[in-house]
Structure prediction request, 287 residues.
Amino acid sequence: MKASHLTAASQLKYPQFWLLAIGAAYIAIHLTLTWKADNSSLLGMSFLFWAAISSLIWDKRHSLNLESDIFSSFFGLSLIALLLIKTISLTSLGGFLYISPVIFAFGLALMASGFKGLKQYGGELLVLFFITVPKLLPTSLTDISPLTAKFAGFALWYTGFPVTRNGILISLPTGSVEVYSGCSGIELIFQMLGLALLFLLMFPQNGKKKILVPIIAVSLGFIVNGARVALMAILVAQRQMAAFDYWHEGDGSLLFSLIAVLLFGLLCWFLLGKAELRNKDATESSK
Prediction:
């Protein structure tokens, strides 16, 4: 008992254990707040992103330069302290759940490696930034509602529905819907872009695949959300408002996000399988 006590106490002298404890505590706080906010979409993506980022950092832990200066450490600690104070005094979660992860990760990286060592965490910080973008930038820069409405209208027309469109208003003979910024799919698109970056960080690709993977991920997010908008227009036209609410704000809306993620997962599985087959053929030919 005495030996284990001394071991645990001696471990606390090393900064990496403090950094690990602070990081784990914040991740638990963020996931708990997201769960209490009943934001299932963000909760699922946050859990996936935090798990993948933690795995990436853990895999390269031995190669990280954990040397920070006083100013960087103080600045990073101040950012984290302000986040915790803000968390305690929150009256409405709103965009805080989207913005806080990248601020926290930035502060923790400063505490760990200083400004000079930030490049070690560039990919992981960029992944978290993709969660933040839809809430951080002005709506005028991220609003793709007209484009989403055009795609949904075209999909309805192509499948035989008598649809007309005026800006963001999609009209069928017996009902219409307006595609506002919240339904444009921009949040899903950036989340898919974050997933694409995670895949490239965990399984580096060569050549055109580095560009192709993000493009496909963004396209999947846009197309799947466009199909969701088209479905909601049909439900409104058929006066099925209960079903509309389910697919608009209920658990049904999460299904489309899951579809986009699963389709992207199939792409990743195909690329990895193809790479494994290529390596196998190269190994056999070298014998």
About this structure: Residues 251-286 form the longest helix (36 residues). DSSP finds twelve helices and three strands in the chain. The longest strand covers residues 169-172.
